[in-house]
Amino acid sequence: MTSTPAIDVHDLNVRYGDFHAVKNLTFQVERGELYALLGTNGAGKTSTLEVMEGHRTASSGTITVLGENPGDRHALRPRTGIMLQESGFAPDLTVTETVALLGRLSGREDRVERVLEVVDLRHKASTRVSQLSGGEKRRLDFATALYGSPELIFLDEPTTGLDIASRDALWSVVDDLRRTGSTVILTTHYLEEAQQRADRIGLMHQGTFRHEGTVAELTRSLPAVIAFSLPTEAPSPPAQAARIGEASFQIESHELQRDLTALMDWARTHDVALEGLSAAPTRLDDVFRAIEPTA
Q1: Which end of the chain has less Cβ packing within 10 Å, N or C?
Q2: What is the three-class DSSP state of 153?
């Protein structure tokens, strides 16, 4: 496997007239990574994704995808799979015809039957696209992206409209693809999916990255929270506890285990019941909410 990044972006800018959607964005995606590109509304995520997919030309900057110019579809189409939010399949084609057609157009080789088995659509092989449910159409989207087990796969909101079992099945297939070396670019509004599965995350806001790194690195940027209440007759709590109500307190902690242990020791020493005690580690959605909304 080559050591060059799967995606290499330097000083990417995308403008629409006077609107500067993406501003001097620089990042890399390593081979075999699952990289989640997330963003607030209007952050520039879609524009960035479209440039990487070869669907939009950058205003300035340089970008390579698998060592190629992303606009060179002849070079990249056989090596990349793209699952768009809405693919716009021809409604009169059957499931088999759709996968076969898009498979041939991609230049990748596979068996339609194998792909339909993987996405659990074998029983719908002769069904017209217009007769599929929303979840079945999403699985068909996925089928066309994974056809031929491409080196690089873009998954744009892949689990929208899928039930829990179908989501689990999709991620099982993604795991299999990654074991064979595929690189995955994910966009999703389900932040728990990114938290659970991404090797690294780029979190965009107003055209650039507000945060980038592993989930652990991003969540360390905010404190965890310990919350509890005390009886009215209780002594004053530890100094770092902030009062948030008449009898309620909160401790913000970057060392959750240490500070929770200290609080428990204090309660034991003073024979105090910590009512409603909760200790919540920082989650990715906390980091997301902490980004200032666009003015």
Answers
A1: C
A2: strand
